[in-house]
Specification:
The chain contains eight helices and four strands. It is an alpha/beta fold.
Length: 205
């Protein structure tokens, strides 16, 4: 009864985040696969419509499967489905750049084979921009939500603000059982620094 009352007192966003975090890994992966497949196909359609609207009805149906099949395969090979927050910062941008460039080139080749090469590069470039915004922006948004102060879990303090401590914070943010609220470190220059979002370095005393 107490747990039920506690859940009712929590903000809706906090409850949603907790439910998503506690989903089985296979379910999370399935949700990401469906979201990526839909978004990549939509990005291809929007790109074609922006460059040459009449081409949307001319291109064969299989062309819309190209970004889905190639994109999900490439994202899987690069490890995007191993963890929601596996890629962060520049690492995320670099991995997305490589993957979406490959998908855009394959899409351009498909358009050349199906229609003509006159607009293939423009469509590919537009698709690349849309897909990069989705892949990078979408995963950064998920990471931000997981790091939100509304996230629930037992509050913990981590000793050591080095690389291992930062990785531990990222791992905890992907689980939902614990929420890091501070680092404790003997390194004086680090005191007061923010290593992760809202996680400050404090002294032991």
């Amino acid at each position: 009864m107490a747990d039920k009352n506690n859940n009712n007192a929590q903000p809706p966003l906090s409850l949603l985040i907790r439910r998503v975090i506690t989903l089985p890994r296979s379910t999370k992966r399935l949700v990401m696969l469906f979201a990526d497949g839909f978004a990549l196909a939509a990005s291809a359609g929007i790109a074609v419509w922006l460059v040459k609207p009449e081409m949307v009805t001319v291109l064969p149906r299989w062309i819309w499967l190209v970004p889905v099949v190639v994109g999900i395969t490439a994202l899987g090979v690069d490890g995007f489905y191993r963890s929601v927050v596996r890629f962060m910062g520049f690492e995320l941008v670099a991995a997305a750049f490589k993957t979406m460039t490959l998908v855009a080139l394959v899409l351009a080749l498909g358009i050349v084979l199906a229609d003509s090469g006159s607009d293939a590069l423009r469509v590919a470039a537009t698709f690349w921009l849309l897909a990069m915004v989705y892949v990078v922006g979408g995963r950064q948004t998920v990471r931000w939500l997981l790091q939100s102060p509304n996230a629930t879990g037992d509050r913990v303090v981590i000793y050591g603000a080095g690389e291992a401590g930062a990785h531990l914070v990222s791992a905890l943010q992907g689980r939902g059982d614990f929420v890091a609220i501070a680092f404790v470190d003997d390194n004086v220059p680090l005191r007061g620094a923010v290593i992760q979002r809202d996680v400050t370095v404090l002294s032991r005393v």
